[in-house]
Amino acid sequence: MNMMISSRIRICFLVFMCASLGIIPTPSLGHSHICLPNDHVAQFIFGDSLFDAGNNNYINTTYQYRANVYPYGETFFNYPTGRFSDGRIIPDFIAEFAKLPLIPAYLHPGYKRYADGANFASGGAGALVGTHLGSVIDLHTQLSNFKRMKTLLKKEIGEAEAKTLVSRAVYITSVGSNDYVAPYTANSSLFQSYSPEEYVDMVIGNLTTVIKGIHKEGGRKFAFVNLAPLGCFPFLKLINAGECVEKITALVKLHNKALPHVLQELESQLKGFKYSITDFYSIVSEIMNNPIKYGFKEGKTACCGSGRYRGVNSCGGKRSVKVYELCEKASDYVFFDSSHPTERASLLIAKSMWSGNQSVTWPYNVKALVEQRVFEVELKNTIPWPPPLPQELILDPVTLEELYSLLFICELRINHNNQPLQVVASANTATKQPQQQTRQSGEKIKLQYSLPLSLSVGFSLQGSMFSCRALMGETMESFGSLERMVSNSVWTLELVQSFNGGGRVELVELGVQVSLKLV
Question: Is the pLDDT of residue 451 over 90?
């Protein structure tokens, strides 16, 4: 049996830290170079019309799924951009708070600066591929677009730099509304084919698949909004005699109950997964029912549209109904059209996402996610792994323990200009109640061993480089040649990541366990 493998191992782990500002030269997606601060965090956006910055302008679809006509965009841009709003949408404000430029639609032919992020959202999209099939960019296709974008990013700025950018980025998603509303308004048989719980599980399951896909590509920090009180939106109240549609409300509540549980599970399953979820339902309900409290004049009727509550989706006059009414001042309204918030309402929601307390945004707000730093660290050893161990042992004495554990000690040396600043030591010994077995003196016994390596290093970083040395200790019980074989082995684990600037990293822990089993 070959007990030796490569003398170099690579172990990547995530360290979340708050770093001070420094400047890192980074190539842009053009041929010139740009300088990104080391607190630069890109923003990648997925979902539906709540977040769509105009991707549907560039696909073969109808005006039912587009907002590239006046009066959309009139407040801020003074022209229609494809955003379903009179002005900016929620991700625009999140970008502004994060000191990023507005993130345009990924499909915009003039946009290639992916160092700031990209917007993949599509009006009308759902988590389910079949939602508005053929007319929108579904969530799974949005993930495929992200993968294509990442390939371009690696070609332009290099694989290592792209990996860092992707891991530091925040992934913002709003999806699910169309999966529930589309079958209802189309009088589909879907709701007869599945129980409400089964249907919600299907929607959440598709969302989970995409989250895992983004994580596999290197994404670590995710922000979500749950579903709004869709059943009470103007377009649904219009077709339900002025009443909220309780069937939709019930599905929304099931969805909003399931989503946090799934995210908690993903946090325990996926390496480095961190998330924020904003209670969109409560925020929108509050401003709809108490508009004056938040500076609005009207919370239940839209600014643009026709019919009761202006709930007919006719804003812009390019859809099936050509006639529409337009209010004088969009900022007085919570809704711009029959199902989308005004710019001013979007600002209030974005503020809650960005810096809201635990009552509306948990377990982190988006600001906290942006400020968390992710460093990929490489460790390498200077002797072969696994260490050389005997394949056979001549036993003496006759009674031996079945399982032995070795002790590793890590000394973390932090240096700046070759001067040590701090030394942190941590040790972890694996203990297991040994079994005893009587053997004959002089009997040859074959050895099997497992060498699980679990390494998590935390440190206080004040300099530019650091290194870690792990010393292999003696076995818990000395027993002849095996002890001599392993006790003098010395490992040097060098953390090769260099840092500019300063900062602080929490979570001090290192443990390496080697188990030897006599059979």
Answer: no
